[in-house]
Amino acid sequence: MVEAMATENKTILEVYYDFFSEDKTVIEKNLESHQISYVLIQKPANQKLSFFDIRVLKILKTKKEVFTSPKNNLMVFLANNPKWTKTYEDNLSEIYIKN
Q1: What is residue 6's three-state secondary structure?
Q2: Which end of the chain is more exposed for a tag (fewer CB within 10 A), N or C?
């Protein structure tokens, strides 16, 4: 994996973010190039923010207390790709295995 990243001149963080790209071909290429055969992924969740998060860190522009996770493109890709099968799901996560 380190060799693959070095030849692409990408940082580890850039490679990580590629897995959540809006481009399906980028996601598929990354899964293949890193020989990933199973994925454990956290489900999006509404999170209650603290006073500190809202007022001090100013995470939200409004004063509402619930933050909704952004769309997870990797999860959408896996759920809609016939090469991958969801084998487990609970209220926090899902596991996909490559067929």
Answers
A1: helix
A2: C
